[in-house]
Write a structure and sequence with these properties.
This protein is of the alpha+beta class and about 70 residues long. It has a single domain, classed as Alpha-Beta Plaits. About 30% of the residues lie in helices and about 30% in strands. A hairpin with a 4-residue loop joins β2 and β3. The model has no long low-confidence stretch (mean pLDDT about 90). This is Heavy-metal-associated domain-containing protein. InterPro entries: HMA_dom (IPR006121), HMA_dom_sf (IPR036163). It comes from Bacillus seohaeanensis.
Length: about 70
């Protein structure tokens, strides 16, 4: 299992966090995603054999959210 940390600009309010958690939980290969409301930090545990970092970023961006590393 791999892990990564992204920062999502909009992930500082409850509605956006719920949206982000829904997006990530629906991706095959993602085991867990934790969002820090204070700074928009998103920690993701995933299986790189099922999903790549680029695919994770693209899926988040498709929903109008801005990913920073």
């Amino acid at each position: 299992m791999d892990n990564t940390t992204f920062y999502v600009k909009e992930a500082t309010n409850e509605e956006c966090i719920r949206t982000l958690e829904t997006i990530l939980s629906g991706i095959d290969g993602v085991d867990r995603a934790l969002v820090d409301v204070e700074d928009g930090e998103v920690k993701i545990d995933f299986h790189s054999s099922q999903v790549t970092l680029d695919e994770l970023k693209a899926k988040i961006s498709q929903h109008g959210l801005h990913v920073r590393e």
